[in-house]
Design goal:
The protein is of the alpha/beta class. The protein has 14 helices and six strands. The chain has two domains: 180 residues, P-loop containing nucleotide triphosphate hydrolases (Rossmann fold, 3-Layer(aba) Sandwich); 58 residues, no CATH class. The chain has a six-stranded parallel beta sheet with strand order 3-2-4-1-5-6, with helices on both faces. Helix 2 links the parallel strand 2 and strand 3. The longest helix is centred in the last third of the chain and has 23 residues. The radius of gyration is 20 Å and the shape is globular. The relative contact order is 0.17.
Length: 326
């Protein structure tokens, strides 16, 4: 059986500069980025998701961007199935895949495999959904953590799903993920971009201000004007939730920027915790190294050069053919 290919994966918290590094890498080496970002899958939501611009995507091809409308749901399982197809297409076209993102569950599904989805009774599920929709995010997360000790956060949708699975199957979602998992379609070679906390906090603040100046509020108003409900899956992310609250009148306009900054910092902290404790990578041949921590304080071009040099050394090793899966 052919060994699963070793694929470079750039991870890190929001605001650390993953996209900039990926684009810089794309100028040095022909890659196609597979976006492992749960928000960039939504069409019409560009500013608040920090989606790469059409110009950037023209220079460095991306997959996993603009897949569904904001009213639809998109799961980690669906991402893994889609990404497996993309990897197959890229292999046939002899293009180098580069997975980039901050959604840990997407990356885990691709690297470690899918789990068997438990059957959920639709009639019993509906009142649970209605009940969960009335809860504040912190409250629903607390219920999810109580029912599933393995619950690692990740937003209202993930918390609601953890509650539904636990109550309707008698076993926690983390149990299903652990006990019924299948083999992944790739072996990840992780580059974990990090920043000192104060530097990341400043970057997040600047990024939020830039998003608001670029028209984040108008972007939300435009999708709501199409008839999209304010609690649609696409509007459940950081930044969009706060804008919706302001438009509803539950958040003062003058507090919008700070509210988004605070939520983004909390989200980045959860991401960093997840990446520190949950990443499992294929070791480099002969080195035993699993995850490469890289300080993202340097310019993206310099970081891209370092990543490419190390990746080239790995794939050109005596075991390079086995490592790359080619």
């Amino acid at each position: 059986m052919r060994e699963r290919p070793l694929v470079p994966v750039i991870v890190g918290p929001t605001g650390v500069g993953k996209t900039a590094v990926a684009v810089a890498l794309g100028t040095l080496h022909p890659v196609t980025v597979i976006s492992a970002d749960a928000r960039q899958v939504y069409r019409h939501l560009d500013i608040g998701t920090a989606k790469p611009s059409p110009d950037v995507q023209a220079r460095v091809p991306h997959r996993g961007v603009d897949l569904i409308d904001p009213g639809e749901r998109y799961s980690a399982g669906r991402f893994a199935r889609d990404a497996a197809a993309w990897l197959g297409e890229l292999s046939a076209a002899e293009r180098e895949p580069l997975v980039v993102g901050g959604t840990g569950f997407y990356i885990r599904a691709l690297a470690e495999g899918l789990f068997r989805e438990p059957p959920l009774d639709a009639v019993r599920r509906e009142p649970l959904r209605a009940w969960a929709a009335r809860l504040e995010p912190a409250r629903i997360a607390a219920f999810a953590a109580r029912l599933d000790r393995g619950f690692a956060g990740g937003g209202r949708q993930r918390a609601a799903r953890a509650i539904e699975v636990a109550l309707l199957t008698g076993r926690s979602l983390s149990w299903w993920q652990r006990e019924t998992r299948q083999t992944g379609v790739m072996r990840p070679w992780y580059v974990h971009l990090t920043l000192p906390r104060d530097v990341l906090r400043r970057r997040i603040a600047l990024r939020v201000r830039a998003m608001l100046q670029a028209g984040l509020v108008a972007e939300v108003e435009a999708v709501l004007a199409t008839g999209l409900p304010s609690d649609a899956p696409g509007l459940d992310g950081v930044g969009y939730r706060e804008v919706v609250a302001m438009l509803r009148g539950t958040l003062p306009t003058g507090e919008l920027e700070e509210a988004i900054v605070v939520s983004t910092r909390r989200y980045a902290k959860r991401q960093e915790t997840w990446f520190r404790h949950q990443l499992r990578a294929a070791p480099e041949r002969g080195s035993g190294e699993h995850v490469w921590l890289l300080d993202a304080s340097e310019p993206p071009e310099r970081l891209a050069g370092e990543i490419l040099a190390r990746w080239s050394a790995v794939t050109r090793s005596p075991a390079g053919a086995a490592v790359s899966g080619r």
